């Protein structure tokens, strides 16, 4: 993807997070001092002062129509929200961490202004991340959902087991008896999939992971399949109260006769990354690989 000659920034963030309001006014003033256009979601509008002549609070649709580079203030959840917001527009997203164990946010608080300089100068890399899509038929009605991380099927009521039949490219794989089932993209492999002992997939690979959550069989294990596969999922006839979630942010109730088909998404999401910080660097830092746990006592 070509980098914009003149970046027009968009900013999204969770207005309920205190740290957003600590960082945002200083960031907006920094952009204004350099006459950089910034469009921010109107919920963040109270951070704009009269001196910030290049900052414009707008609704979300207008933001993605004007911006050609979006800053997501927050953790992975904010980046997932931003990915849904831009859909297929291919606008690069840069995540700014406000704390927590995220794998997607590339900028730490002490790096913000150095990274902003580099964005303005075009000194960054855009990495394409594969999405996954679900075509869902519930009671004869069809829905199309897209996820950057994963789709998860589980019970709306806790402490209940699910039984769902899974096929890959028309070939029967298994009927899982488990607490739930995750279909993950490579980007999502370090999210919920990792928390339930799924494999870590390098995010630039084209693949999907099928991973049962707490399966009621010792032989049920995660399976990595090619990205061009189609996963068909059919709940059992007695399966009431099932729910499908996309990236943990969109939820859809399923019925026993529902049919789900999950495959590679039609478009990727572009994330801003830095050449000097590899995915393996991120893994070591987040998961504390290579450090001696005895020194942390």
Quick summary:
The chain is of the alpha+beta class. It has helices at 18-33, 60-66, 76-86, 112-120, 192-195, 279-287, and strands at 9-13, 38-41, 55-58, 69-73, 93-96, 125-129, 132-138, 141-147, 150-155, 162-168, 171-178, 180-184, 207-213, 223-226, 231-235, 242-246, 250-254, 259-264, 269-273.
What labels would you give this structure?
297 residues, alpha+beta, Rossmann fold, Tumour Suppressor Smad4, 2 domains, six-stranded antiparallel sheet, 6 helices, 19 strands, 19% helix, elongated
Structural class: alpha+beta
Q: Tell me what the CATH architecture of the largest domain is.
A: 3-Layer(aba) Sandwich
Described by the principal axes of the CA atoms, the overall outline is elongated
By CATH, the topology of the largest domain is Rossmann fold
CATH homology-level superfamily of the largest domain: Probable inorganic polyphosphate/atp-NAD kinase, domain 1
Number of domains: 2
CATH class designation of the largest domain: Alpha Beta
Q: Span between N and C termini?
A: 46 Å
Radius of gyration: 21 Å
Relative helix content: 10-25%
DSSP strand content: 35-45%
Mean pLDDT across residues: 91
Largest sheet entry: 6 strands, antiparallel
Unreliable sequence segments? none
Read across the widest sheet, the strand sequence of neighbours is: 8-7-18-15-10-11
How many separate helices? 6
- What pattern of helices and strands is seen along the backbone? EHEEHEHEHEEEEEEEHEEEEEEEH
β-strand number: 19
């Amino acid at each position: 993807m070509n980098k914009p000659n003149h970046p027009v920034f968009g900013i999204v963030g969770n207005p309920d997070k205190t740290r957003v309001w600590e960082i945002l006014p200083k960031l907006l003033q920094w952009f204004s001092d350099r006459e950089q256009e910034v469009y921010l979601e109107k919920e963040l509008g109270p951070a704009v002062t009269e001196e910030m002549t290049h900052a414009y609070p707008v609704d979300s649709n207008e933001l993605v129509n004007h911006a050609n580079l979006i800053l997501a203030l927050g953790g992975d959840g904010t980046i997932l929200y931003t990915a849904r917001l831009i859909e297929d527009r291919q606008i690069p997203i840069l995540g700014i961490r406000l704390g927590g164990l995220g794998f997607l946010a590339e900028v730490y608080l002490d790096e913000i202004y150095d990274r902003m300089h580099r964005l303005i100068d075009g000194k960054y890399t855009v990495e394409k991340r594969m999405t996954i899509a679900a075509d869902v038929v519930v009671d004869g009605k069809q829905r199309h959902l897209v996820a950057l991380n994963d789709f998860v099927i589980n019970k709306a009521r806790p402490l209940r087991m699910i039984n769902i039949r899974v096929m890959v490219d028309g070939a029967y794989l298994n009927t899982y008896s488990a607490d739930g089932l995750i279909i993950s993209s490579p980007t999502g492999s370090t999210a919920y999939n990792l928390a339930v002992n799924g494999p870590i997939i390098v995010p630039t690979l084209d693949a999907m992971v099928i991973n049962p959550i707490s399966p009621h069989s010792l032989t049920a294990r995660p399976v990595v399949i090619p990205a061009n596969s189609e996963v068909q999922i059919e709940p059992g006839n007695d399966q009431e109260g099932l729910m499908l979630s996309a990236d943990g942010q969109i939820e859809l109730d399923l019925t026993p006769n529902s049919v789900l088909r999950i495959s590679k998404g039609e478009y990727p999401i572009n994330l801003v990354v830095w050449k000097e910080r590899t995915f393996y660097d991120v893994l070591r830092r987040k998961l504390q690989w290579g450090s001696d746990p005895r020194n942390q006592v």
